[in-house]
C-alpha cells in the first residue's frame, strides 16, 4: 500500500493507479469526442474535470464505467482492462459509483428502497443488514429522517445527497460525479458539495466534473481542463485557477469566474 503514494486511502491493498486511460479515442459518427486521452487516477485521489460544454467530459466519465465503449486505446480499472459483459461488468459498475446531474433516483421507490436495492440485488446483502447500513449512510449525508419518503417529496439537494448515499451503499472503489450540482437551486449547492468534500477527505477516489471552483480548491488534488475532446491542461487547483497556461483555459476561466 505504501507504493500507491496514497497512505490516506486504506480501501484497497493493490498498488498502482486505480484508473489508467491510454490513448483513448472515441467517435460518435464523424464527431471525434475523445482524442488521445491519457490519464491516471491514483487511489485516494480527487480529480476535477473542467471545461466547456461539448468537450467530452461526460463521455469520459461514461467510458470509465463502460456506459460507453471506446474505439481505440485502453482503460484499466484496478489493474485490469474493463470487462465487456456479464458479471464482471456488473461488478465494475458497482465498484465505480456514479452520481449524475439529474439525480435519477427511482421515482416509485422510497429513499430507503433506492439505497438498498443495489446491495440486496447485486451484492446479495440481507435486507435487514442493507437497511441498517442505508440508515447509517443517510445519516451521514444528513437525510436519515427522509428515508421513508419518495424522491419527489425531497428537495433537489436532498435527492442528490440520497444519490450519493445510494452510490456509497455499494462500497465503491471510486465515485464519478458528473456535474452533480449544476441542476440544483443555488442555495442547495453547498450542502451537496460539503458531503463530497467530506468523502474526499476520507480518502474516496473521485473524478468530479464540476465548475465549482471552491470545491476544486478545497478537495481536488488535480484539475484536468478538457476541451474539444482533449486534455488541454492539467495542474493543481491553485496553479490552474490563478496561472492557467493555455489561452483556451484562460478564455474559459474568464467566462466562469
Ligand atoms: P460534455 O460533458 O463535456 O459537455 P459530452 O461528453 O456530453 O461533453 O459530449 C461530447 C460531444 O459528443 C458533444 O458534441 C455531444 O453532443 C456528443 N455526444 C455525446 N453523446 C453522444 C451520443 N450518444 N451520440 C452522439 N453524440 C453524442
Ligand atoms: Mg456533460
From TrEMBL:
It is an enzyme of class 7 (translocase). The lineage of its organism: Bacteria, Bacillati, Actinomycetota, Actinomycetes, Streptosporangiales. It catalyses: a polar amino acid(out) + ATP + H2O = a polar amino acid(in) + ADP + phosphate + H(+). Its main location: membrane. Belongs to the ABC transporter superfamily. Residues 19-253 form the ABC transporter domain. One of its GO terms (cellular component) is plasma membrane. The keyword Nucleus does not apply. Keywords: Amino-acid transport, ATP-binding, Cell membrane, Membrane, Nucleotide-binding, Transport. The keyword Nucleotide-binding applies. One of its GO terms (molecular function) is ATP binding. It comes from the Bacteria. PANTHER family: AMINO ACID IMPORT ATP-BINDING PROTEIN (PTHR43166), GLUTAMATE_ASPARTATE IMPORT ATP-BINDING PROTEIN GLTL (PTHR43166:SF9). Its EC number is 7.4.2.1. InterPro entries: AAA+_ATPase (IPR003593), ABC_ATPase_HisP-typ (IPR030679), ABC_transporter-like_ATP-bd (IPR003439), ABC_transporter-like_CS (IPR017871), MetN_ABC_transporter-like (IPR050086), P-loop_NTPase (IPR027417). It is found in: Cell membrane. SUPFAM superfamilies: P-loop containing nucleoside triphosphate hydrolases. It comes from Bailinhaonella thermotolerans. It holds the Pfam family ABC_tran. It is a peripheral membrane protein. This is ABC-type polar-amino-acid transporter. Coiled coil: none annotated.
